[in-house]
Amino acid sequence: LAMEAVPLLLLLLLLLLSSPLAPAPANGLLSPKGVNYEVQALMTIKNYLKDPHGVLKNWDQDSVDPCSWTMVTCSQENLVTGLEAPSQNLSGLLSPSIGNLTNLEIVLLQNNNINGRIPAEIGRLTKLRTLDLSSNHFSGEIPGSVSRLRDLQYLRLNNNTLSGAFPSSSANLSHLVFLDLSYNNLSGPVPGSLARTFNIVGNPLICGAATEQDCYGTLPMPMSYSLNNTQGTVLPAKSKSHKAAIAFGSTIGCISILFLLTGLLFWWRHRKNRQILFDVDGK
Ligand SMILES: *[C@@H]1O[C@H](CO)[C@@H](O)[C@H](O)[C@H]1NC(C)=O
Ligand SMILES: *[C@@H]1O[C@H](CO)[C@@H](O)[C@H](O)[C@H]1NC(C)=O
Ligand SMILES: *[C@@H]1O[C@H](CO)[C@@H](O)[C@H](O)[C@H]1NC(C)=O
Ligand SMILES: *[C@@H]1O[C@H](CO)[C@@H](O)[C@H](O)[C@H]1NC(C)=O
Ligand SMILES: *[C@@H]1O[C@H](CO)[C@@H](O)[C@H](O)[C@H]1NC(C)=O
Ligand SMILES: *[C@@H]1O[C@H](CO)[C@@H](O)[C@H](O)[C@H]1NC(C)=O
Question: Residue 159: CB within 6 Å of ligand 3?
Fold first, then answer.
């Protein structure tokens, strides 16, 4: 029976590995030569969004540059440094093309109805200082590439339906001063030392500290944890010994069960042998 299950399991594994990622909406943008690549990226972003109030109406793919467009700000060199369209009732998806706007310093899309995932390409915006995607319907995990945003100072992802853990490689977010992850469905630990001000309320499964024992549930991480020396050193030590005790206990438990099973097996075989002998004798 076990041998028969092996090909089935392999098939299942193959199916899991080969399942396609979410299909991207078709994008009919053909780029003639000489088109400004930031125009191209912004037009793709527009095509992925639904814009009921027509606030992106003057975005036009024949423009020389996008610097006169609504919601777009440029540097003196006519490079796109800002995309600011809060509270415009935009819905649809945020296109991965945002990763091609590598001069962006500020992205404000809060208080819309955008859904789908936060594109991993956002990690290419290495000049980004402010990112606000709060109060939308973003779901899925926060892409790990966010940890590459080394200039990021202000990050708001609150009031979405994000799940999973905050990227564990977030130690590189050394300039972060403000982090709001509240009212999502995030889980796991968020290092308290990440930002001076941060908010994680409304995530039933999140932990406010690096150790699972210190999970505060719906409470924000108290700042005293990092300020109070005695507390800071005592807690991890306690949880370490606690973990060791659990590991010790379960090892002993496993060994006992193994012994018991072996004993049972021997007793059963012994008994069977005796029965056979008995049968032979009785014959
Ligand atoms: C925003 O869009 C939704 C549909 O996506 C619509 O039901 C709602 O009335 C709109 N709100 C405003 C203020 O336009
Ligand atoms: C980014 O730009 C390049 C060329 O400029 C293009 O080939 C690529 O498709 C763009 N990526 C996205 C996600 O739009
Ligand atoms: C976020 O959601 C909470 C709970 O639903 C609500 O009380 C709060 O006003 C929301 N915040 C924003 C900025 O929308
Ligand atoms: C932090 O940045 C450095 C330099 O870019 C990189 O080598 C390292 O892998 C990054 N660490 C994490 C945890 O992302
Ligand atoms: C939150 O995430 C957990 C698993 O991580 C899932 O079981 C639960 O249904 C999610 N809740 C919502 C409201 O999405
Ligand atoms: C530090 O923690 C101890 C015990 O947990 C407490 O008595 C003390 O008041 C705390 N000190 C500060 C500055 O919070």
Answer: yes
Write the residue with the smallest CA distance to atom 2 of ligand 6: 231
Q: What is the DSSP string of the chain?
A: -HHHHHHHHHHHHHHHHHPPPPPPPP------TT--HHHHHHHHHHHHEE-TT-TTTT--TT-S-STTSTTEEE-TTS-EEEEE-TTS--EEE--GGGGG-TT--EEE--SSEEEEPPPGGGGG-TT--EEE--SSEEEEEPPGGGGG-TT--EEE--SSEEEEEPPTTGGG-TT--EEE--SSEEEEE--TTS-SEEE-TT-TEEESSSSGGG--TTSPPPTHHHH-HHHHHHHHHHHHHHHHHHHHHHHHHHHHHHHHHHHHHHHHHHHHHHHHHHHHHH-
Ligand 4 pocket, 191 CB below 6 A?
no
What tens digit of pLDDT does each residue of 32-84 get? 556 789 999 999 999 999 999 999 999 999 999 999 999 999 999 999 999 99
Classify 31-237 by CATH class. Answer: alpha beta
Ligand 2 contacts CB of residue 24 (under 6 A): no
75-133 pLDDT, tens digit per residue, is 999 999 999 999 999 999 999 999 999 999 999 999 999 999 999 999 999 999 999 99
- Ligand 4, pocket-test mutation among 124, 145, 170, 172, most atoms within 8 A of CB: 172
User: What is the number of the ligand closest to the CA of 92?
Assistant: 1
Cα 19 to averaged position of ligand 4 atoms, centre (Å): 30
Q: Establish how many alpha carbons lie within 13 A of residue 249's alpha carbon, considering only the half-sphere containing its beta carbon.
A: 6
pLDDT higher than threshold 70 for residue 220: no
Q: Is 44 in the pocket of ligand 3 (CB under 6 A)?
A: no
